Amino acid sequence: MEKMSRVTTALGGSVLTGRTMHCHLDAPANAISVCRDAAQVVVAGRSIFKIYAIEEEQFVEKLNLRVGRKPSLNLSCADVVWHQMDENLLATAATNGVVVTWNLGRPSRNKQDQLFTEHKRTVNKVCFHPTEAHVLLSGSQDGFMKCFDLRRKDSVSTFSGQSESVRDVQFSIRDYFTFASTFENGNVQLWDIRRPDRCERMFTAHNGPVFCCDWHPEDRGWLATGGRDKMVKVWDMTTHRAKEMHCVQTIASVARVKWRPECRHHLATCSMMVDHNIYVWDVRRPFVPAAMFEEHRDVTTGIAWRHPHDPSFLLSGSKDSSLCQHLFRDASQPVERANPEGLCYGLFGDLAFAAKESLVAAESGRKPYTGDRRHPIFFKRKLDPAEPFAGLASSALSVFETEPGGSAMRWFVDTAERYALAGRPLAELCDHNAKVARELGRNQVAQTWTMLRTIYCSPGLLPTANLSHSVGKGGSCGLQLMNSFNLKDMAPGLGSETRLDRSKGDARSDTVLLDSSATLITNEDNEETEGSDVPADYLLGDVEGEDDELYLLDPEHTHPEEPECVLPQEAFPLRHEIVDTPPGPEHLQDKADSPHVSGSEADVASLAPMDSSFSLLSVSHALYDSRLPPDFFSVLVRDMLHFYAEQGDVQMAVSVLIVLGERVRKDIDEQTQEHWYTSYIDLLQRFRLWNVSNEVVKLSTSRAVSCLNQASTTLHVNCSHCKRPMSSRGWVCDRCHRCASMCAVCHHVVKGLFVWCQGCSHGGHLQHIMKWLEGSSHCPAGCGHLCEYS
């Protein structure tokens, strides 16, 4: 819905009048540029190249520059610029590497003037000199910048950034010979068009590609840059080194940046992806935009202020095939609906809370915040009352401090430094981490590690010798039973397996083992049990685990609510009434020794009474698998990790993820794992545990996290003598042919770890400097500076 407000601006002898409006284009636009009289705008893209007149109520198409029967790649435009001195001169950057100039004064339909085909790859940007009518500059994907004199057929200068592709080039408005260029490696270079052999200055502006730059129209040295790191930075180029003046944090990669006319601290930005809106920022308030335009439905590809002295009209083109004129008065003001409340935890558990001053009663009795007792956790800048946004929103800050030592985070640091995450068997890792947690008083965490060891590691088996020794004890000391259970609590299926069918005269082969690997204890194997025919009671169980053993069934120690089920001497109850007298154990033994008995009938239970108080039942294999597979506990382990993460102990969640690896990774989605890893790494870095942080990154099971230490690994080195970048690999400068890093103590090249004084810049081998400063505080280079090493 179009807004109907209008603005009329008097600019010298001309008057700008208009409103918020838009028109539909034939194809998506890649770039736009405005004529110097602010009456026309050119729109260029892969399939569109038209000039529109900007009237009071609408856009009117004036000229279509895509003429000819056959489509040409020269007309596929990545960028377009309209000369601010000659209203008939245009230049376009083609996707095939051609730079084309257009003369609107030609009488023919085809307005194409000159073609420059010196670039080998796509040309990303073209720029006319602000005061020189015949000078054109281009930057290409091939890493070169070329300066063209339109009176010649070839370029007059070629500038090599010795880097990756050039994304933007802009002539300085105040310095005649200076232009800036941005690159995909994050660098910004300043060049003098008279010296194409090397740049005047180079510095790293962003963490990632720098997509755009723009010189301030009033302040001579201010340069704004925008990059993929979602930041807009303002640099002061008048100092010896580029100084960052302001930094604006946006929500998406910055594709275009333009200073707002007549407003020193305002600039407009648009995003390369995700975000379709256009924002106008006050660099003094970098977190909330001063204005926002929301008309486009797809990514905005080009923005331009309509007149260099009018701050009211902004033009934009988009991939949604639309051209818009935005009236600043109609823009939404995000600061008006900004939430003035905030909440944040400090590194040591302190809680900072900001709210409207009207909501915080003056008589609440709270003491004003004077700063953290350990070291400042944040810095509050005093607002200048003269700033236009000083009275828009105001909040009162309250800080709730924890008791000294009540929430000390020393346990976090000790745990991070002492935990073992790899390099050992799983059982040893769990035992070590459980020991660390127990020594730090974190008993629940220690118990969790112990349980993980029990679930995922094979339990130790009780040696056969120990079993025989325990069986031979008898008497009053008793015999312990491992993992005892009541028959009445067994599953119906298991219960049916324990019955012996006497009616058929054969015995079931389903029997019970003391241990899956232990030798069967039968009458033949244990001589101490032979000859005992005293009736005894039996308890059925299996030997499984390390700590439990076979124990003596004592009627005095039975559970009062769940009494043990006592078996008769026949070991199993009868299914139905037996008329004949059932055979005794001797008969079974004789039958097992008979050569006419089958193998299945020979594997029957042997009743071997130990003494007058009990007998032992041994069978060939277990009734059930007493050890559940680890996958059975996957849901439990997953819930446990979520529990620790929700409690704020992301250290435990990440440590278990790394130790268990693929055993648990499949049960937790990648996004959750990445969130846990990044949270833990952020905490480690806040505590300056850099080595532990790097180890967690290396051992990470998340692909998005494991590549964190593979980014930004390039180190830019300048020669210590001529101050020029060292392009070649090694320790000798290509320009001055001198060694770049010499030790001030031994006067040899430092090829390893190098340490230097930040005061005088002299240094050398780490061990040499440390030994030198033990006996003297003066610089070993003889400069007279008092160096310190801590």
Walk me through the structure.
The protein is α+β, with helices and mostly antiparallel strands and 790 residues long. Among the domains are: 342-382 and 389-400, no CATH class; 411-455 and 630-710, no CATH class. It contains 14 helices and 39 strands. The strands form twelve sheets. It has a four-stranded antiparallel β-sheet with strand order 3-30-29-28, with no helix packed on it. The chain has a four-stranded antiparallel β-sheet with strand order 4-5-6-7, with no helix packed on it. A hairpin with a 6-residue loop joins strand 12 (123-128) and strand 13. The longest helix has 17 residues, at 670-686. The chain is globular. The model is unreliable at 371-381, 460-572 and 581-624 (pLDDT under 50).
Structure, briefly:
The chain has 790 residues and is an alpha+beta fold.
How many helices in DSSP terms? 14
Strand order of the largest sheet: 3-30-29-28
Report the biggest beta sheet as strand number plus sense, adding barrel if it closes.
4 strands, antiparallel
Helix-residue proportion? 10-25%
Strand content: 25-35%
Question: Distance between the terminal alpha carbons, to the nearest Å?
Answer: 65 Å
Report the average pLDDT across residues.
Answer: 76
Radius of gyration in whole Å, from Cα? Answer: 41 Å
- Derived structural class: alpha+beta
Number of strands: 39
Which runs of at least 5 residues are low in confidence (pLDDT < 50)?
Answer: 371-381, 460-572, 581-624
Using the alpha-carbon principal axes, give the shape. Answer: globular
Family: Belongs to the WD repeat WDR24 family.
Catalytic activity: S-ubiquitinyl-[E2 ubiquitin-conjugating enzyme]-L-cysteine + [acceptor protein]-L-lysine = [E2 ubiquitin-conjugating enzyme]-L-cysteine + N(6)-ubiquitinyl-[acceptor protein]-L-lysine
EC number: 2.3.2.27
Main location: membrane
